[in-house]
Design a protein that fits this description.
The protein has helices at 22-33, 78-81, 95-105, 144-162; strands at residues 16-19, 36-44, 50-59, 62-68, 87-91, 108-115, 120-126, 132-138. It is built from 4 helices and 8 strands. With 163 residues, the protein is α/β, with parallel strands linked by helices. 28% of the residues lie in helices and 35% in strands. The longest helix is centred in the last third of the chain and has 19 residues, at 144-162. It has a 4-stranded mixed β-sheet with strand order 1-4-3-2, covered by helices on one side. Strands 5-8-7-6 form a 4-stranded mixed β-sheet, covered by helices on one side.
Amino acid sequence: MAVNPVPEGYHSVNAYLIVEDAHRAIAFYTRAFGAQEIYRLPMKDPQGREKIGHAEIRIGDTHLMLSDEWPEMDALGPNRRGGPTTSFVIYGPDADAAWRRAVDAGARADRPVKDEFWGDRMGTVIDPFGHKWTLGTHVRDVSPAEMAQAMEHWCQQNAAQDS
């Protein structure tokens, strides 16, 4: 029997987070986003300190991989690189409750939850490890024509504010 080239429960593209304290990050993601820990591989760094060499968590139906920073391999988290270098979006049934849970767990509020012109209700937080997370609920379907019109209006509003 042939082995599936994509492991069960994974997708073709999967995120891998680098954080400065993977033990603490796993605990945070569990509290903030309801993550479930799947796997943890402890190892020691060159100075003999206990770290996480690789771990896997699941948020909803998505697996995320993560590890501690490994400066000797240029594996550094966003806080050491000067801020987020990417962003994640988590969809669920209640963006407001998800955003509040993340902030209560220790995330920094970046953008409050509000209805967006593309049909989602969304807000953004920055986790204690420097990663940006947008928490959203799809509340209405928007046609491509309506999306283009709304984007044009949004651009005009922002241009007026900048002048």
